[in-house]
Amino acid sequence: TKLEKFLSFFDQSKKTDDDFILEIDENNIDPDFEEIAKLLNMASQDEEMIDKLLAEEDIENAFDKLEIDLNLAIKEKEEAIEQLYESARQMKTFGMPTEIISKATNLSIDEIESL
Q1: Per residue in 36-76, pLDDT tens?
Q2: What pLDDT sits at residue 36?
Q3: Which of 62, 66, 75, 84 is surrounded by the most beta carbons within 10 Å?
Q4: How far apart are alpha carbons 43 and 80 in whole angstroms?
Q5: pLDDT score, position 4
Q6: Which pLDDT value is given to residue 20?
Q7: 113 half-sphere exposure, CB direction, 13 A CA radius
């Protein structure tokens, strides 16, 4: 159908090595889509557009790395807090006074008593 022919311009199996430009076979274009193919090819040959795409890809990669680093930091903080609570539980089990546990762990008296 015409829709399938149009969508074939965006077939990801035709992408180039840089992952964001699609090669369009100009010899097998339906006459109804020649203008669209011409515009798409012009865009893929525009150095400024390619530079913008590369910059966008770099930004996306930086955000992905930041997200991974942030999630790792959150996980490490949660583990440290859990370890702090576990230390306070053990101190309480060994009979240490609540005030000393509070000073050692910086946990409130109420937090320690709830353990």
Answers
A1: 777 777 776 777 877 887 898 899 999 999 999 999 999 99
A2: 78
A3: 84
A4: 51
A5: 80
A6: 59
A7: 4
Q: Is residue 37 within 8 Å of 26, Cβ to Cβ? A: yes
Residue 107 structure tokens: 């946990």
Write the CA distances from 33 to 21, 24, 28, 46, 62, integer angstroms. 18, 11, 10, 20, 37
Q: Looking at the DSSP assignment, which residues form a beta bridge with residue 22? A: 15
Count of residues in the chain: 115
Q: Which one-letter amino acid corresponds to residue 107?
A: L
Tokens at residue 72, please?
């790792």
pTM for the structure as a whole: 0.53
Q: b vs e for 35-67, b when ≥16 Cβ sit within 10 Å of the residue's Cβ?
A: eebeebeeebeeeeeeeebeeeeeeeeeeeeee
